[in-house]
Structures are given as C-alpha cells and as structure tokens.
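FAQ: What does the model actually see?

It sees only this:
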Amino acid sequence: MNIAMFSDTYVPQKNGVATAVKIYKDEMERLGHNVFVFVPEYDSNHKREERNVFEFPAVTYFKEKEQRFALPFSKQLFKIRNLNLDVIHSHAPFSMGIMARLISSNLNLKHVGTHHTMYEYYRHYAPLIIRPSLEQSKKLIKNWCMKLDKVIVPTNNIKEVLIDYGVPQDHIVVIPTGIDMYSFDKPIKWDLRKEYNIHEEDKILLFVGRIAKEKNIDFLIKDVFKKVVEEEENVKFVIVGDGNERENLEEAVVNEGLQQKVIFTGGQARGKVIDAYKQADLFIFASYTETQGLVVLESLASGTPVIALGKMGVYDILSRKNTGGIMIPELVADDFIHNILRLLNNESEYNKLSSMGKTFVENNFSLTVNVEKLIEVYKNLI
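And it is asked to produce this:
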C-alpha cells in the first residue's frame, strides 16, 4: 500500500507522537508498504536524509517552542497527487491534520486519524484570548473525530472518553502504538553512570518525557524523591527530557537541597533513552494526561519496573495482571515512597517484576501485530 502520514511532530523532536509516527513508518516499510510522512519543517539548518519525508514551512507555538504549526505553502503539495496514495493517516487535528483532511477530500481518499493526546488537558498552552473552555474542547474533539473515516485510539479508556464526548462506538478502533522490541535487545552504548558521575552503589530512579506541568514532575521531586532520599541515601533521580518547566524544576531542586541528587539530561535521541531505561533501577511516573503511556511500556520492555499513577492510558496498562509495574491509584506521595523503597530493598520481588515486564510487553504490545491491525483498518475502509 501507499500510505501518507501527516503529523505536527516528528523525529528528531522528542515526544511520544514523534516516536510513534517514526516506528509506524519503519515497521510498515519493513512489511513492504510505502510510507510518505508530511511534517512541519524542524529547523532551517536541519537537513533531513530520511527517504519519503516531506517538510512544510512552519512557525513555533506561543509557549512551546519545540512545537510547530505548518503553513500550507510548499512545493511538496504538488508532489502528493503523483504518489498514488491509497489512504491518509493523520496524527493530530491541527495544521497537518487540517491539511490531511483537505487533501483526502480533494483526492477522494479515506482519512484515518489517531487520537494520541488528551488535548482538553493542554488548553493552558493556548493564549488566553483563543483558549477554549473544557466543554468547547470536548466539542472540538468530537467534531474532529466525526470528520475522520475512522478514529484510532491506543486504549479502551480513551475510547470510553470519546464515546462520552459523543463519538459513536463503531467509529473508534482500539490499537496500541506498539513497542519495537528489537530496539531493546541492542547493547548499551550510552554509559549514564560515567557521564553523570553516578556511583555503582547508587540506585537510579528515572523519568522520561516532556518537562511540563501536566507530567507532575514537581510532585515527584518535592513530595516523593526528597522523602526517599531521607530513607535511602544512595539514590539519584535522572530526568530525561526537556520542556518549558525545566527552569522552574531546576530552581525547585536547588531550593530543596537536592542538586547533588537530581540530574537533568535534557532531551536525548531514542537510542540513548532506551539505554537510560536499561540502566535505571525504577521508572517513576505521575502524569495524568497520557492516552497510552508509551514511556511506561518502553521501561517495562527494558526490564525496568514501573511505579506510576494509574490514570487514563497508564491505567489501561497497569490495571492488568502480571505487568511488571505497580499502579498507584491516586496522587498520594506515601504510596509512591513506600513502593519505591520496598522494591529497592527487595531483590527477589524486583527481579520478578523485571522479568514479568518484558514478557508482558512482548505478549501484548508487539509493534508488528499492532501495525498489521492498522493495515487491516486501512484495507477495510478502502
């Protein structure tokens, strides 16, 4: 098949959607399909060498400088008609999603869209003058979904949310993004301990993701990690990622006297992120807006047990049996602290969860199986 994917974010940007689109493309091409990706220009100085990736001129968002809004002025538009496309798949309802809709209509192609993000929880990034209310956001999400020929969601939890917003049940298909397990079998190249002078006796707690308010990293630092350090001296908290809250969090770390314990690595390439998972002892996560929680699955695939807030997509993962993770039902610091200390000091329980996590991801979230499900959706629509 000839498949066009439209996304407002793509590698080398470092976020879940960019990663998902990239691994979709790679796996579909491995299975023999042609995938053409249309994205905003990342940077005028960045030269893309990847085949079948087309860029559009773009401007950065008001508050999130890493996020880009594509402008529909590009010679790439004239190439689309010659690609003999079978289907269009968009990954956001914004600039590239709107473009995907116009092109699908013009070329009479089916348009599939993945609902990756709970946009209603990200309204604070929009300037106040154009910021929609919660109810308006829900209506906008419903209206966008109804313009698509089929909506893909990563978990049943998100499907129920969209049904509650008024999207018909038979309009939605649940397909997790999937994990490319072969990427986790490669030897470690990035020595995290050496680069940041982390001693062998130190345990490593890890967070991976955008550094933003909705990720609750402030809670993890001040309410959880600070108390863990009081009980367990040889422990470090490594935060991999970047975002507009980093400066505030670095200031909070100094104010709490944790500057020798908390390490900010900044955003890293996916290979380095996987190396970080493998070298960590525990992955801790308190975000309440995840549609799937790809980072949770990646940590489990690495054999690193997870302790995470069980909301939205993360709930759909960790509420199952034998996941290799511990779900914290509500944002209660003592529950996080108790389980972190318990696993750091119980080798047999730790090893059991580590082994369980790898098996769980391989059996339930194989990338190949889920990409084949997506291809089946395309074929049925066509």
